[in-house]
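quick one, 397 residues, struct below
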Amino acid sequence: MKQRGFVKLPELHSPCDDQDSWARTVEVLEGCEDGSLSDVYKKLKRWGGCDLDGWSTALEQHHPSLDERKLVAYIKTAALKASENWPEGLHILRRNNPGEVSLERPQIITVLACMMLGLTPKGFGEILNHSAVFSAGLIAYFAEAQEGNLDKRGPVRFVRRMCPPGPPPVVEKLASICIETEHGIEDTLNAAHADFANKNVGGGFLSGTRAQEEIMFASQPECSVAMLILEELSDLETSSMHGAVKTAVYKGYGFKLKYEGRCHGPAGEILAFDALDPNNLTASFSPEGVQRELLKAYTAFSTPSSYSCVSTGNWGCGAFLGCRQLKSTIQWIAASWAAVSLVYHTFGDKAFTESMREFVVKIEKAAVTPEQLHAALMSLELKRNRVHEIILEHFGL
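---
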């Protein structure tokens, strides 16, 4: 499929705003070879020459043994390769125009280095200035790259995908589903991992928001390239990222999020799909809203993958305030249509876990088909936190 449009890389801002701007930027970068990252920002006049408190705190608290000057020199060297690698820029994956962009590891490192130095339309400046917990993950990534731990990794692919044409397939049996209470989505091995995305993939990562998608991007910073090349997702679109390496470990959520250290994780497969807008919660229980979410999850789970299992959880039920009983049922049907199994994470919520286990056992024992469950969702008057109860009553269970 034809890809149209480019992200200019590097994209230069004041004071570098004429035809010689890149040459002058190169001169600045080469002239501060032994400087700290804050020194580089000041000389480039990025973010008003700020002190980068998030970066400094992360270095002190989480990476005290790293030599900042050597790490910054590595980042600058990588960024200086941008102009020769992308004279036209990076391909943009346009809205309603499926396609993919594949980048080799050195190219990915160059793009992220440009994001570090404010040479892209979207960059890491706010994280480096305000978020020590996310800065720690970025430092971990570049430390891994500097030490050569990423050299033998393959390319990273960014894919934009539209809902498969025609109605979903008719299948006789619901997908296998395993309910996991203790671990997180990314802890499941041999599975694609769900990204509960914003329609602008990456969400609030660059501003330090600490929800599921943003934490995933912090642990796998290579995903951040998606924020440069993916336009907003439409209702019938999803995206996926294949090959991004996990280089940082996080525990917790929101204000309780903690950086746990560096890691040498495997290259993952991430399925990004956005839930209904939280300002339209009533619509999520309507037939139109349910069908929208079904097709969205089906599109994500149908992404060609190395795995036949998807690790997922309470999609759209955190910052987006969705109903866990409804969204889990929707994903179960969608996984059945896509012929994948599910590992469903309930994140230690005992009441929801018990309700879901009872629901799954009774539905499976009664041999309810995906079509029957789909029809029930579309026809019943569903109510928040009573979805399981209403469906079981409908089937006489």
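The chain is about 40% helix and 15% strand.
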